[in-house]
Amino acid sequence: MSHAIQDQRPTRDRKSAAPAGLTRGGLPRWAPAAIAALSIALGCGIGLAFDLQSKIQWGLLAALLFIAVTYTASAVIENRRQAKDRVATSLVWVCFVLAVIPLLSLMWTTISRGLKLLSGNFLSHSMNGVTSFDEGGGVYHALLGTIEQVALATLIAAPIGLLTAVYLVEYGKGRLAKSVTFFVDVMTGIPSIVAGLFILTTWNLMLGFGPSGFAGAMALSILMMPVVVRSTEEMLKLVPNELREAALALGVPKWRVILKVVLPTAIGGISTGVMLAVARIAGETAPIMLLVFGSQLINGNPFEGAQSSLPLYIWEQYKVGSEASYDRAWAAALVLIAFVMILNLVARGIARWKAPKTGR
Q1: Model confidence pLDDT, tens digit, residues 47-94
Q2: Contacts of 276 (CB under 8 A, 6+ apart)
Q3: Helices 80-114 and 55-77, interaxial angle, to 10°?
């Protein structure tokens, strides 16, 4: 009995001593917020003391102080292991804030300056008869051109990109699939001006067609296609193979499995990828300048005659340099952001409507 008590005593001592480094006091929940407030105050104080003109420098100082103070407080009160974990978390939060601040600043500037002129009259009138230095005019002709050009580009690029992705995931093997993947990756980095020059050479110069919204849409579809292919390809790869195998085991043809099982399962990601591609081409200006030329008049026919677009309209108005043109440029920028946002909301609604229902 005495030997058993002697054997158990060191075991209890080891159990009580081993976790001592892990059971020290911990920082309260409000500590990160308090450290952040202290870091901001110190960063502003150092910026004022050393007469730092840029507020960006103040923010970077506050971010560095936040990480340093977090590590020090956690190492003293908790332990070094927990301190390293908190530093990693702090770095994630700092990077998140650094990424969000420019976005919020951009949105605030665009909304505050764009609302100054945005109205029903601005959305329903063109620049016909209004000089760029005068007040008045509207964005209707540019908005109409953007809608038509983006719609045509989507009708061209989305089916081709979707079918290409289906081929690469479901059928593609060997050199042909590798070659298609390689050229899709190369096309992803093509500058927009190159796509515009290609359509200008083939459609306008070789075939003799004049400027039109359709020519601009073809150039935009070249830029849109690789984005659709890559995003759709990744979404199709995420569909579990068990779903395909279960459908094929029931004797369903492969084309029907793709149409009824694979695509509906990935429709949410596919629609998001298409909207990302639309957002990319909606702001392109170089192909529009080469192929559509721009116009101050309303042209509802995208297959004949010069048109305008929102990016081109913004560039034209900002180039003038007058106060009235600046206001029109910011209002058009707000309209462009709202246009892309509406398209994303519509795509999410369609994806939710068409996605496979879960539950009973």
Answers
A1: 888 888 888 888 888 889 999 998 888 888 888 888 888 889 889 988
A2: 227, 231
A3: 150
Residue 206, classified by CB atoms within 10 Å of its CB into exposed (0-12), middle (13-18) or buried (19+), is exposed
Q: How far apart are CA 39 and CA 64, in angstroms?
A: 8
Q: Which residues contact 303 (CB under 8 A, 6 or more apart)?
A: 212, 213, 214
Helices 140-166 and 267-282, packing angle to 10 deg: 140
pTM over cut 0.85: no
Q: What is the CA radius of gyration of the chain?
A: 29
> Which pairs with CB-CB distance under 8 Å and at least 24 residues apart come from 60-67?
63/39, 63/94, 63/97, 63/98, 65/38, 65/39, 66/35, 66/36, 66/39, 66/90, 66/94, 67/91, 67/94
Mapping DSSP onto H, E and C, the string for the chain reads CHHHHHHHHHHHHHHHHHHHHHCCCCCCCCHHHHHHHHHHHHHHHHHHHCCCCCHHHHHHHHHHHHHHHHHHHHHHHCCHHHHHHHHHHHHHHHHHHHHHHHHHHHHHHHHHHHCCCCCHHHHHCCCCCCCCCCCCCCCHHHHHHHHHHHHHHHHHHHHHHHHHHHHHHHHCCHHHHHHHHHHHHHHHCCCHHHHHHHHHHHHHHHCCCCCCHHHHHHHHHHHHHHHHHHHHHHHHHCCCHHHHHHHHHCCCCHHHHHHHHHHHHCHHHHHHHHHHHHHHHHCCCHHHHHHCECCCCCCCCCCCCCECCHHHHHHHHHHHCCHHHHHHHHHHHHHHHHHHHHHHHHHHHHHHHHCCCCCC
Report pLDDT digits (tens) over 113-136: 999 888 888 999 888 888 778 888
> What's the residue count for the chain?
360
Q: At 117, list the tokens.
A: 């002129």
CA–CA gap between residue 261 and residue 265 (Å, rounded)? 6
Amino acid at site 184: V
